[in-house]
Each structure stands twice: as C-alpha cells, then as structure tokens.
Amino acid sequence: MLHEIGRILFGPASIGGPGGFKLEGPAILIVPASIGIIFLVIASLVWAYKDAGKREKSGFITLLFLFLTGFPASFIWWFWLRPPLKKGL
Fold first, then answer.
1. Cβ pair 33, 23 in contact under 8 A
2. Entry pTM
C-alpha cells in the first residue's frame, strides 16, 4: 500500500528523458509546497534565534526549546512564554 501511495504522489515527476526534468500531475504541487514549507521553517527558526537575542536570552536554548516541544506548536508557546523586551536607558 505504501508503495502505491509513493507511486501516485511521486511517480509523475521524472528526471532525464527527452526534455530533461518535468513535473506533471500531483508532483507539480508537492515539490513547490515542500520547498516553501522548508523555507518557512528555516526563516522562522532564524527569526526566533534573533528574537531571543533581542530579549537577552540564549538563541541556542530557544532553538532547542522549539525542536524539543514540537516545531509548529512551539512557536505559539514561544509567543506566549517569551520574556519582555528590556528597555534601554
């Protein structure tokens, strides 16, 4: 059954042949969506790291928190639990 699902989802994408790389069927949506999700994950991790630095907290500990608590839900927790910004003198 898993083999059939894989064939349906990724079968239409082909590399090589006459015309080189081509996307057809469901792969035309899966590949750009996957790239977009990866980009959003990386961008949000970079933002969280920088936000922790602004709040005088360890960026590494923040990234560790985000990974260990489950990535999408952990951002909601970060917005809720993050410390307030320190006001400059």
1. no
2. 0.61
What distance lies between CA 65 and its chain's CA centroid? 15
Average pLDDT, whole number, for the chain?
Answer: 75
Distance between CA atoms of 10 and 37, rounded to whole angstroms?
A: 17
What's the confidence (pLDDT) of residue 89? 43
CB-count burial class (<10 Å; 0-12, 13-18, 19+) for 66: buried
Residues 85 and 67: their CA atoms lie apart, in Å, by: 23
Angstrom distances, CA of residue 26 to CA of 9, 12, 15, 59: 6, 7, 15, 38
Residue 21 CB partners (closer than 8 Å, separation 6+): 14, 15
**Cβ–Cβ < 8 Å for 81, 68:** no
